[in-house]
Amino acid sequence: MIVFIAGDFNDWRNKLSRNLCERLRVDEVFDAARPRGKIGESVRRFMRDRFAAAAVAPDAGQPVLASRLPRIVRTARTYPALVPWLRMDRIYTRGFRVTQARVLRGPQWAHLSDHSPLVADLTLHP
Q1: pLDDT per residue as tens digits for the range 69-101
Q2: pLDDT at residue 34 tops 80
Q3: How far apart are CA 70 and CA 65, in angstroms?
Q4: CB atoms < 10 A from the CB of 89, how many?
Q5: Looking only at Cα atoms, what is the longest distance across the chain?
Q6: 20 to 30 A Cα–Cα from 89, which one of 59, 102, 115, 119?
Q7: β-strand partners of 54
Q8: Pairing of strands 3-8, 63-65
Q9: Which sign does the torsion angle of CA 111, 113, 114, 117 carry?
Q10: pTM of this structure
Q11: How far apart are CA 91 and CA 13, in angstroms?
Q12: How do residues 1-27 score in pLDDT, each as one tens digit?
């Protein structure tokens, strides 16, 4: 059975998240996309997010400043949208493989809501 649950959970202390994951056997997409323990990946993301080194946009092949790329963070801080500090919004799944999860940031998104949107790329498990 596949399950997809997404929304504003107001779960600042991760108590509901742990309960949902254990009782419903679902995965939070940011935890699934970036499991703990891979220090090299964490360092790489930290460096990319903190420094404005040039990167190449995968679809256009054009140089784009890293600061203009969507910021990838494991904690998925979404509130308030202009300066996200709290992890209030979540996506939970069962029966999917998470290929990527990200928070959309910046003024173009912040004017739509007081929460930053979450995006997850998923594929069905065979």
Answers
A1: 444 445 688 888 888 888 889 999 999 999 999
A2: no
A3: 11
A4: 22
A5: 46
A6: 59
A7: 65
A8: unpaired
A9: negative
A10: 0.67
A11: 16
A12: 899 999 998 887 778 888 888 899 999
